[in-house]
């Protein structure tokens, strides 16, 4: 049994989508970051950096923070969505790190300046909007001629998709990135993705990807 401590953010959804895809039992514990639940002493024992998501694996007592590390651990543990050969694993890790170091942080800054603080910092708005557009272009090129980021469906796809699902906050028109749009809609059609998106609570319809 896995305890998942999470909220309705892209990083939180990465792990709940993976858990749904794995089909393993887990219990979701809401950590409402709008109410500072992430600073509660009990949560800090599991996630010392006061960030979601975090997990506790009751099979071995492991507590783990950082969404990428959690996805890597779960894919390894259950032997799914991560290739067994060294080259295949390296490519999935490459694109997982691309999301962790690029798409996630840059899109997160775009959310801050474009969605929640528009008009306060024009330079920052332009900087992060431009970088997000560049990253979508990188992803679009990677998806050319293949269904998923690393060929087969993997944790790399599950890590990137929740960030792309907030394309509206980033002022991105997915029709300008046809390979990303095709990929986005294909994942959106997966039951596990939809279920994972609504953890720990239903937030309404998942964005469709088109205006």
Automatic annotation (TrEMBL):
E.C. number: 1.8.4.-
Superkingdom of origin organism: Bacteria
UniProt xrefs under InterPro entries: Glutathione-S-Trfase_C-like, Glutathione-S-Trfase_C_sf, Glutathione_S-Trfase, Glutathione_S-Trfase_N, GST_C, Thioredoxin-like_sf
Gene3D superfamilies xref list: 1.20.1050.10, Glutaredoxin (3.40.30.10)
Enzyme kind, highest EC tier: oxidoreductase
Residue stretches spanning the membrane: none
GST N-terminal domain segment(s): 1-82
Keywords for the protein's UniProt record, in alphabetical order: Oxidoreductase, Plasmid
Any one GO MF annotation of this record: oxidoreductase activity
Domain GST C-terminal intervals: 85-211
Matching CDD domains: GST_C_YfcG_like, GST_N_Ure2p_like
SUPFAM superfamilies: GST C-terminal domain-like, Thioredoxin-like
Protein name: Disulfide-bond oxidoreductase YfcG
Organism of provenance: Sulfitobacter pontiacus
């Amino acid at each position: 049994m896995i305890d998942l401590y999470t909220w309705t953010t892209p990083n939180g959804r990465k792990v709940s989508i993976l858990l749904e895809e794995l089909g393993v039992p887990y219990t979701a514990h809401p950590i409402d970051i709008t109410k500072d639940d992430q600073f509660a002493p009990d949560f800090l024992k599991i996630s010392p950096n006061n960030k979601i998501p975090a997990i506790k694996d009751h099979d071995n007592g492991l507590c783990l923070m950082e969404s990428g590390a959690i996805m890597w651990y779960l894919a390894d543990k259950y032997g799914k969505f991560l290739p067994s050969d060294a080259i295949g694993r390296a490519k999935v890790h490459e694109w997982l790190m691309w999301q962790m170091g690029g798409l996630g942080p840059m899109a997160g800054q775009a959310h801050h300046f474009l969605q929640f603080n528009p008009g306060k910092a024009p330079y920052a708005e332009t900087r992060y909007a431009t970088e997000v557009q560049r990253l979508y272009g990188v992803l679009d090129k990677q998806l050319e001629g293949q269904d998923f980021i690393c060929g087969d469906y993997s944790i790399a796809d599950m890590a990137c998709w929740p960030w792309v699902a907030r394309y509206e906050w980033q002022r991105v028109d997915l029709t300008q990135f046809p390979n990303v749009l095709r990929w986005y809609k294909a994942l959106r059609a997966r039951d596990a993705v939809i279920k994972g998106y609504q953890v720990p609570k239903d937030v309404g319809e998942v964005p469709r990807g088109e205006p």
